[in-house]
Amino acid sequence: MMLSSFFVLMAVAWPAVLACQQHVQRDAASLARRTIVKEPESVILKNVRVFDGIARLPPSTVYLSSGLIVPFLSPHANATVIDGAGQDLTLLPGFFDAHAHPETTADLLSFARNGVTTVMDMACSTRAECLALVREHADDGLPSVFVSGATATVPGSANANLPGFPANETIATGTREEIDSWVQSQLDKGASYIKLIQDRPGQLQLSPEEVQTLVNASASRGLQTNCHVAAYDSVGIAVEAGVSMVHHLPFDKSIDADLAHSAKRAGTISVPTLTMMRAFGAILAPGMYDIALESVRTLREADVPILAGTDANAVNKLGIPIATLPPPISFGPSLHDELANLVEAGLTPLEALRSATVLPSLHFGLTPDRGAVLPGLRADLVLVEGDPTKDISVTRNIRKVWIGGVEVV
Length: 409
Known about the structure:
Layout: H1 3-20, H2 28-33, E1 43-51, E2 56-65, E3 68-70, E4 80-83, E5 89-93, E6 95-100, H3 105-113, E7 116-121, H4 127-136, E8 144-152, H5 176-188, E9 193-198, H6 208-219, E10 225-229, H7 232-241, E11 245-247, H8 257-266, E12 269-271, H9 274-284, H10 288-301, H11 333-344, H12 349-355, H13 358-363, E13 381-385, E14 398-403, E15 406-407
Parallel strand pairs: 1-4, 1-5, 6-7, 7-8, 8-9, 9-10, 10-11, 11-12
Antiparallel strand pairs: 1-2, 2-3, 5-13, 13-14, 14-15
Helix pairs in contact: 5-6, 6-7, 7-8, 9-10, 11-12
């Protein structure tokens, strides 16, 4: 779908979104958790520059009500007015982190206070922790969390040997029937998409044929496939199979033009996680980050969509050697690091902002719901001081954050 079609779709759909807005009855436990936020309120933001998800707009007025961006408010509405006149303020869609591993309310609050309003969780220590974040905080004014199922891998692989990995969740025989059943079981347990692993050549992992079968089984159920990659060859296997997204970048050599154009033809999207690549490179191999930067430049030149993801995690609690897992990466602040890294890799500030707003919304299938500043969409918004369309570091200058119209405090 072209971006222009995205906006046409949202313009048509916003009345239906308004009509379908649900007011969920919260139980006492949910209300108790709301000590960190306030209820949704009506807000008028006047004279604020707007990045609408695509472009920088001149100073405008934006209205919030009942958790949504709305086209207007009654003059008699009891609204909070924020007037940006004389101030250098920019309103943006709430940010996505397209690859993270939150497991606690504190993780989500850290995301929220840094303007991250939607999190794509790419595996928890246990599925129960992942699903608890979705179920317990869906209406708390904390970030929306979407989760993968168990990671698709084989018995004895590096991932299967991690503490807490359920032994009964591996793909043992690799038959079409087993893989089909495995994918269905992830969907039944609440997966929003499927994650799989393609490690370095020679490692215990799914074969190219098994990857293809997994992609087909997922697609037949409307599930995207998100493939962890660690080497040039693993990217090639993922692209050949038609995975939806590749996460991370090769450690051994940069993606070249041929592979990048193959990814473009296959419709495969890149989530480079440069923040993780930089952190890993500083520990293991100084040249690793330069290889990653070159890969992103090549992918951009091939017009492969690039999404901002950080690999934010708290692996220290597992007691695993740092060479086995990524170093700890912060929940929230790292998203701003990722935007800066993407600009260093050659994206313009506008392109970097799109990678964390409209593009993940579009490619994760969350439109018309969020990712832009338009009437009818969720009031997931970030107000910053300065103009991040010119200077990406400005995204750190956060004045206010709203999630579903709830102001984060």
